[in-house]
Amino acid sequence: MSETVLKMDVVDEAIASREADAWVIGVHAGSEAQAALTLCPEGVQHAVRHALKAGWMRGDTGESLFLPISKDDQPPVARVLLVGLGKRDALTAESFRALGATVVKTCEKSGVNRAIALLSLDTWPLLSSRRVMEAMAEGAWLGNYRFERLQSVSKKETPRHRLKRLDFALPGNKIKGARKRLDQVERITRGVALARDLANLPGNLLTPDILAKKARELAERLPIKTTILSGPVLAQKGMNGILAVGQGSANPPCLIVLEYRKGGDRPTLAVVGKAVTFDSGGISLKPGAKMEEMKFDMSGGAAVFGFLHAIAEMKLPINVVGIVPAAENLPSGTAQRPGDVIKTAKGLFVEVINTDAEGRLILADALHHAASFDPDVIIDLATLTGACVIALGSHATGLMGNNLPLQKKLRQAGEKCGERVWPLPLFAEYQEQIKSVVADIKNVGGREAGTITAACFLSRFVDETRAWAHLDIAGTAYDLSGTRAHVPKGAVGIGVRLLCRYALAERK
User: Fold this and answer.
1) Could you say which of 174, 360, 416, 484 is catalytic?
2) Does position 42 have pLDDT exceeding 90, yes or no?
3) Fold match between domain 7-171 and domain 191-507
4) What does the alpha-carbon distance between residue 301 and residue 168 come to, in Å, rounded to a whole number?
């Protein structure tokens, strides 16, 4: 996993004697500096106010300005980094996540090793100072992520400067609580980094067998039990959905089970993540353009790994079973064909209309297997349908399921952590679209409501007595635009923070 190079801490707001390369001070729209500016020596305050009065900075979102400080003022810093906050009443936690990442990137470009962000004395309309600190730290760690392991030695000969430390100034009576939350944020973002690392690996370096090996490595370092089901065992258990998807590849499929049990007699949460380590579409071959992006088709499984890693590091008193069906979907003489009928582990017969609708086939067996652990709640994550990208774009994950209270909790968790989800209906009429003439059901229901009919398919493999939620992350799993400071190009690690926020709320 990518190591967290950046260290953070919370310091007392009486920082005038603390040395750093730079202080970070926010500027609201209209060139209004944070009230925390008054914590600085008078000479620094004068320099900042002079710069703002001169119009050097307006306070627009994403704006930044390094202001050198005269030695005559004898400050403990050589410069102040002014960062634009935008309109005061428009600030959200997501604004501060982006701000945290912007601070890191700006400091790195200017050779700053240590910075202190001033947060106290300010009143934020929608957030407490602790929440602002938490969001900034989260964004800073997320934006600090780099996936560089596959770069050549020559490219590393001129290493990029890295910010080594970012501290947050808060009142002394808030430091203990803030440090506890900061520690949680670090462990969660380490889980995100693991998920990103896995999803960013190309198909030749992350086959189902290699993913299983990484599960064993996770179990060696953390209190997680790992079980790998493959070959004859999958066949014995009737997991023909997983076997059918993987039968066209030289790299055989498997089912990875990760168990974290530190909750005593508390109920069990099962999280299921689709992990098609590379998806060519099989016989129903995808277009060649952008097919390289199909290495991200295991992002649901990556999220399960990252989530288990985070809760184990946080030592949460909960019970979680992570289930990751892993397969490689390739065309060959042994690949499944359109028109094939397979018998799933649940006993339902499925007609394969399109071999590129493979994710639901492996999830069918995985969801059925999840029930064997008697969970109260099952949540699955999958880059399942292009239709979800059309419906919601890249700004929200599709949410469907059989339990409205569970959906409400996931929506609340998503709003708090910035990984928003949006509900779509599962009306009974949609089930008609997946009826098969020759089998019980078929694996696609036509062009209309593709995201919903895919969820309808999955619903056939979940016991109705259990609360179940399906998260279609096809539009949110990866981002190649580079437009968000805290989301480097590539895998987003979506779902890790959402599941952690949900688990932390349920723990109470």
Assistant:
1) 360
2) no
3) no
4) 34
The string of pLDDT tens digits covering residues 135-152 is 999 999 999 998 988 887
In the numeric block, the tokens 């730290």 are attached to: 137
- Whether 286 sits among the annotated catalytic residues: the reply is yes
What's the pLDDT tens digit per position in 363-410?
999 999 999 999 999 999 999 999 999 999 999 999 999 999 999 999
- Domain covering 191-507 in this structure, CATH number: 3.40.630.10
Q: Residue ranges of the domains in the chain?
A: 7-171, 191-507
Judged by DSSP in three states, 156 sits in: helix
- pTM metric for this prediction: 0.96
Contact predicate 308/260, CB 8 Å: yes
Calpha distance 251→104 (Å, rounded): 41
Residues 136, 137, 143, 146, Cα dihedral to 10°: 170
* 7-171: CATH architecture: 3-Layer(aba) Sandwich (3.40)
Q: Is the pLDDT of residue 301 over 80?
A: yes
Residues 114, 164, 237, 286: which is the catalytic one? 286
Provide the percentage of residues in the chain whose pLDDT is more than 70. Answer: 96
d(CA 172, CA 435): 64
Task: Let me know: does 451 contact 458? Beta carbons within 8 Å.
Answer: no
266 catalytically annotated? no
